[in-house]
Amino acid sequence: MKKIFILFLTSFLLLSCNSHDEQSNNQTWNNKLEQKKTILALWDSLTAWLWVDVSENYPSKLEKKLAENWYNYKIVNAWISWDTSDWLKSRVWLYLDLKPEIVILVIWWNDWLRWLSTTNLKSNIIEIIDSFPSTTKIVLWWMDIPINLWLKYRKEFKNVYTDIKKEKENIYLMDYFLEWVWWVRDLNISDKIHPNSAWYDLIVNNLYNFLIKNNILEK
Question: For residues 44 and 83, is the Cβ–Cβ distance under 8 A?
Fold first, then answer.
């Protein structure tokens, strides 16, 4: 009888400890979920979800991929159609309260459509970057413009991004890779400009690999 009592007591204590440990682990995980770090995605309509489901755009897909790999981040999609560096510069203060650890900054398309001077483009981008604390990691997506445009302007445009990288310490310059997806039928919606779900998959894979390679993410 005594042995049975001892076995019962031991089992009860073990179950209690396991239950306590499980509750503790769950609480720790829940607390961690509530303390998600923030990634701010700044882009124009290319980061939206034109004619695709909202879950199919790159910020949504990237957030899901990060979670699947145990990275505790939420992504705020701050896209605006026809966005320009001038416009973004004027409203960037709206995002400062988010206190993002990482900012993915892609600004270019609508600037060259307006033939914005590269001097102004560089000045605008630097002002946007400087709006965030120096501890913020800025992923600046280097961009190119069509090869049939004025050669001198195209060269100066490309140099803007490399020049900024040389001047700013908290910049991670991501290579341009979109030249082979424009007007590809299987990667664009019917306007042959904006991305479909497959196009966003390419963005996510490239971005994720870049973030990992450069040790930008934290667990």
Answer: yes
